[in-house]
Amino acid sequence: MAMHGELQDSHGRMMRDLRVSITDRCNFRCLYCLPETEEAANFYRSKWDALRNPHPAGLEPIKYEWKPKSHLLTYEEIGRVVRVAVGLGIEKVRVTGGEPLLRHGMETLVADLASIPGVRDLAMTTNGFRFAQKAEALRSAGLRRVSFSLDSLDRDNFRKMTGRDALADVLAGIATAKRLGFAPVKVNAVVIRGLNDHELESLADFARREGVVMRFIEFMPLDSSRAWMRDLVVPGREILARLQARFGLKPADQSGQPSETARRWIFADGGGEAGIIAPVTEPFCGHCNRLRLTADGQLRTCLFSLEEHDLKPLLRGGADDGALAARLVEVVRGKEAGHRIGQPDFVQPARSMSCIGG
Ligand code: SAM
Ligand code: SF4
Q1: Which amino acids bring their CB within 6 angstroms of ligand 2?
Q2: Ligand 1 neighbourhood includes 297 CB (under 6 angstroms)
Q3: Each residue of 146-178: pLDDT tens digit?
Q4: Which residue's CA lies nearest to atom 5 of ligand 1?
Q5: In this predicted model, what pLDDT tens digit does every residue of 302-358 receive, in sequence order?
Q6: Where are the domains of the chain?
Q7: Do 324 and 311 touch, CB atoms closer than 8 A?
Q8: Are β-strands 309-310 and 290-293 bridged in parallel, bridged antiparallel, or unpaired?
């Protein structure tokens, strides 16, 4: 039985992890998230043609316009929601986006979140482009953990995947994070068949060499082009077999962490660890303890939720913290059992990952 006022859903899962998107804007155009380049369009087009599988009617690309500033939660409003959520059992907070480092003065938000008693783990996910410039301020503000997105170590392929010629900037960001003692430094790669799957081993080698923790992620149907295809997903099992063959892996002990998204593996020679996040082929919804707050104040109970819950009327309408807490409890109760990728009734959410917050 949940204690009064805890964030427990109707399936018995207790929410401990809140992902906070602080902007829907991004300076990259990752092909699996917010593609806009001709190269990205060509990549997808060639896949649809090759398989004689026309892009399904009704799945038009999401035309996105950035939310006006007045629609975004202020740092004060974000801090308030996080405080209330922490009072209801949230322990982990991740700042994300869009690209979080695009939001002006975000270190003040980080300092505020780091000061909340009960936030046991504060982290950020970034594309890394602006990290080197911001790193010292973020570290002083109390950020200790950072995850970078890095899908390719090849300059041309990186540009193709992200739409930006920015590999060197991201690598500089990772080096800065290491130098300043952020720990662990994690590196996320979304693996897409025919695009960067040939780089699996070199990305793992990079992680081993640099002492960072690699996470390989299956491509999910959350791209704004709505061009996701199952054939482009490299199943976690296949990623594991490749890494196993090359490096030798032993399973990490995860007995105390059932809600962790990554299956973690230790390199047999002691050279660090790699994790595989396989939400498409090996869903882990049964242990999900995550909630998401979008930059425009929508609470989401799942990456794939079709419904969002607007907190702005409460935040801007004079509601007290008790009313806000009651709303959070009510929303969480309706959290869906799991996503329905692969089911005949699956519907891709109306917003892409860049707006939802990964
Ligand atoms: N801009 C930041 C970044 O790229 O790290 C933070 C936001 S981004 C939406 C958060 C994470 O979502 C990134 O690690 C990115 O690779 C991942 N992501 C985006 N679209 C995805 C998709 N369609 N499938 C799987 N992961 C995705
Ligand atoms: Fe931007 Fe991150 Fe999406 Fe890439 S994955 S387009 S960096 S929000």
Answers
A1: 26, 28-30, 33-34, 97-99, 127, 149, 353-354
A2: no
A3: 999 999 999 999 999 999 999 999 999 999 999
A4: 126
A5: 999 999 999 999 999 999 999 999 999 999 999 999 998 888 888 888 888 999 988
A6: 2-356
A7: yes
A8: unpaired
